[in-house]
Structure of Phosphoribosylformylglycinamidine synthase subunit PurS:
Amino acid sequence: MQRKYLAKIFVTVRPSVLDPAGVAVQSGLKQMGYDNVEQVRIGKYIEVTIISPDEPKARQDLNQMCEQMLANPVIENYRFDLIEVESQTGVF
Amino acid sequence: MQRKYLAKIFVTVRPSVLDPAGVAVQSGLKQMGYDNVEQVRIGKYIEVTIISPDEPKARQDLNQMCEQMLANPVIENYRFDLIEVESQTGVF
């Protein structure tokens, strides 16, 4: 039996790393009159739907995907929430 | 008295809109051997620290920022969680 999981992945620039996109957006917001914005940090939000026999295997795959492709571990952190969306029987 | 809020903003491509970046990442993951990935959707995760007198005002500002700059309402949805991180007295 295979299960379907939805992973909500957050990839953020490490706090010690400069985020030029965030600085640019903050500057733009200031020009629009929002001078009450203290900081802007821009990251990625990725939703991955994955078929897996169980949750530990899904988590293992997702960690590998994040480290190898979705995040750059040198300058980014990642974390994800995992929810089971549907159980499926049959062959994939 | 001014309060400091942290908004965690999620900007996602509307379900009816094609997400080419997500399709490309899914294809890349498949080439790496992850053929159990059914869908990938890529959005933005933005953290904004904002100074505001109260929560309703902070929410109002953030909605305007999202609609005017952070998201493209034609093809993207947004939502945010707001938490108070610190209370501050004094003049800003």
The mean pLDDT of chain B is 93. Residues 51 and 57 of chain B are 10 Å apart (CA to CA). Chain B has one domain: 3-84. Chain B touches chain A through 33 residues (CB under 8 Å).
